[in-house]
Amino acid sequence: MINLQGVSLQMGGRELLQNADCRIFPGHKVGVIGANGCGKSSLFKLLLRQLDSDSGRVEVPTGWRIAHMAQEVAAGQQSALDYVLDGDDELRRLQRKLQQAENGDIGGRELGELHERMAAIDGYSGPARAAQLLDGLGFAHTDQQRPASSFSGGWRIRLNLARALMCPADLMLLDEPTNHLDLDATLWLEQWLQRFPGTLLVISHDRDFLDAVVDGIVSFEQRQLRLYSGNYSAFERARAERLAQQQAQYEKQQVERAHMEDFVRRFRAKASKAKQAQSRLKALDRMVQIAPAHSDSPFHFTLPAANKTSDPLIDLREADIGYGGRAVLRGVQLGIQPGRRLGLLGPNGAGKSSLIKTLAGELPLIGGERLCGEHLAIGYFAQHQLEALDGAASPVLHLQRLSPEASEQSLRDFLGGYGFAGDRAFETVADFSGGEKARLALAILAWQKPNLLLLDEPTNHLDLEMRHALTLALAEFPGAVVLVSHDRHLLANTTDEFLLVAGGRAEPYAGDLEDYKQWLLAFRRGEKAEEKFPGGEKPADDKKAQRRAAAALREQLKPLTDKLKRVERQMSQAEKKLAELESQLADESLYSGGQQEEIARVNREQSQQREALDELEMQWLEISEQLEAARES
User: Fold this and answer.
1) Phi (first) and psi of residue 625, to 5 degrees
2) Which residue intervals define the domain ABC transporter in the entry (predicted)?
3) Which of 272, 302, 327, 529 has its Cα between 20 and 30 A from that of 254?
4) What percent of the chain has pLDDT over 90?
């Protein structure tokens, strides 16, 4: 059992933990969540004995093997495969011993023991298992012999993840493992971790990933560690209920406290009431101070759109897309109209990023046409946007360069919604974390008021609160959106349709993300069959049959999926309207007198809206059950 008892920790003058307790039992899979900078990575360092707490006890069972995903990769010349194999220390030790045996340095008896131990740890399959990890994380077969130093930063992080997974561990610590993964690699990792038999602690800001993998949540809350049972969705429900109870208790206490303070004020000077007043004062001193619920996100922003637009904004006609004259996608027909919200799906390397770069005008066409509307205003977010930030400039200066006429106060107000409040707006970017740089890149994009957002993995480095704020802002953005993301919650809540990028084509995809997960599994089976039987008839026939079956299922389910999306949009509108009505009823000015008819009208509308929402929720459940039944049949 992992046991943290009375742990306090300060870093850089900030108190991260204050007398915190937490227990995690063997075999549990736990998600670690909290705002950027709250101390999640420091908690891992405590467990790894790389950091000592200021007070308290941190206990990890003696003898536990710990696998940890490092954030840096040494730029060595060893191959990617060898780098991953180094994750299994025991395997590597035995391999070195066996190499010595080949040189005649070891006797026959010891050699037999080495082979016996090698078989016991399944060591002979080590290279094959390492190759499977690399394959699952998106490395091409030809990449496995490339030097680790030849990969870019994001792919080096994938190498670190593969190396951690290679380690036969009792405890695995993964720090934001999906940050540099695409959707298909994320789905593969989910399945791998679901089968992992040991104890898992994973820092992640991907709610769907946490829902699929963990059975508990450790949340950093006001310098304490609070453990919740269940996945992330269960945590959200439990925390919301607790905060609501806490707020109600706080408000009740404040009413009682105000009443006692008023009594003391009025009767303290009167001799007949002095004793009672004194007892009220003692009661006030004894009363436990209950902090009001702090459930509001620090991030609140909108994504304003350009005043003018064109229809279509962009039109690709018979577009061949690729690099150096070699086409990755051929014959792409794609028109982006105002308000269209498109999610790009497809396996790693299929061309999703290439398509977005072409739409953005950063990648010239090999063939075909790219036609732009007169009033096209593109907001493009990709990972290189973070590298393009001026490290010597502040967030305010970045915006001032775009709009020299804007007042400093308007810039500070705007940046506040992205977490750059007060003096943070004037700090230099060089000192910012990856999450802060990503927030600034989004702020710069939003400031320019685009009517087409092209977003390639915008949630990398963003914490859960910022992802939630981005999801809400994108849902209300009036312009068009094209999105690539491994964050399924963001995809499901901000796009209306999908485009499948695979096999050199980009075509409409009628299924939902669950359908795509099944499609991806079938696609991988087809790829493996092709590797096993290159040029054979049977795998090609199987692949064609899989494609036909997937297409038939999508066509069969399309009316239901379309209906479900319509109902979800209606539910969102109804919830928004209901929130507006409840806000009106909470406004004290409504009850100032002479507005009885208005009060009655708003109450009637509230009742009608609740009934409408209940009806929509029933429809949603019925359609969801029909979809589930159709998939299983």
Assistant:
1) -65, -40
2) 2-247, 311-528
3) 272
4) 28
